[in-house]
Amino acid sequence: MSKDNILCFKKIHCYEKRWKQRIEEREGESGTTWNRTRDTRIFSPLLYRLSYGTLSENWVAKIISFFNFEIIFLTQLQFKKSINYFCNHFSINSLQMNRFCSINNKNDQRLIIDFGNTLTKAAIFVNDKIVDLLKTSELTVNQLKTFTAERDVKYVFSSAVIDVSDDVNVFLKNSFQYLTFDHHTLLPIINLYKTPATLGKDRLSMAVAAADQFPEQNCLIISAGTTITYDFVDSEKRYHGGAISPGLTMRLKALHTYTSKLPLISLKADVELTGNTTENSILSGVIWGAIAEVDKIIDYYKASYTDLLVIFSGGDVNFFHKKLKNCIFVAENLVLTGLNAILNFNVNRQ
Fold first, then answer.
1. Does the pTM of the predicted model rise above 0.85?
2. What is residue 44's predicted lDDT score, i.e. its pLDDT?
3. CA-closest candidate to residue 179, choices 3, 349, 9, 4
4. What is the largest CA-CA distance in the chain?
5. Alpha carbon distance 270, 264 (integer Å)
């Protein structure tokens, strides 16, 4: 047995008593007993059980959960070596094992990229958590090389509402297992949108994130950025659609573009409801008008869904969250989180 495998199995042995108690509690009703022999070659009750017959998929899931919880100190390579030895030595179905290992290994790292209208965000996920985040107006190959240096990234999953440069696409395809999000991508939710090919991937990603993080909950997802979008996913993970409204900056530009006298001004916080200058009047109309719109839309949804959870995200969230009369849950990086959940779903099906 290699040094890596010894390290892995020593760790299992250290938690033998705890796991024995845990499994006995789960299987107490079935009358299952642990020790059928005094064979000293079997040094762990867990491994003893694995040496008999074929495991059900549910048991494999339990074992992988154990691996994930206990050997986070292993590197990706050590993890794979230990799992391979484990499968070979105890005649475990390696394909079945790999199905869980591919997603559930805590050392598994993936790069998620959201090519947005204003910013491109790239995030390194480990165990479904963002451990590093990059924001840039234009993502370059050099930025990607620096961002992924010394990272054991296997999968890259991206969503784009803009055209991605050829050199970035080539680099990602040649360096990683590169997947892109389109209307053919399999989803962990049911998409009831009648024109899925035209549905914004950012909107759908946020709906997936909401359904993944708040299961069995009716969710209205509001994102305030270039546009203000409203998206509804019900407690049965069915995405129904929503609405699209101009964002704050877009409203300011529209007032300037379609009038001859109104100036183009920039957003600023703490605007009074009653403007005492033309600039403040424009800001009041745009900001407080959008706040009133959002509150009323929430009211309409609450009239139909009393248990509604409102999730707010986007770059302009700070202009809203303290002024809305409705209670909201502010979530950062919702698109990235949803993309990661979609990647999980697809890799887990392989």
1. no
2. 40
3. 349
4. 92
5. 19
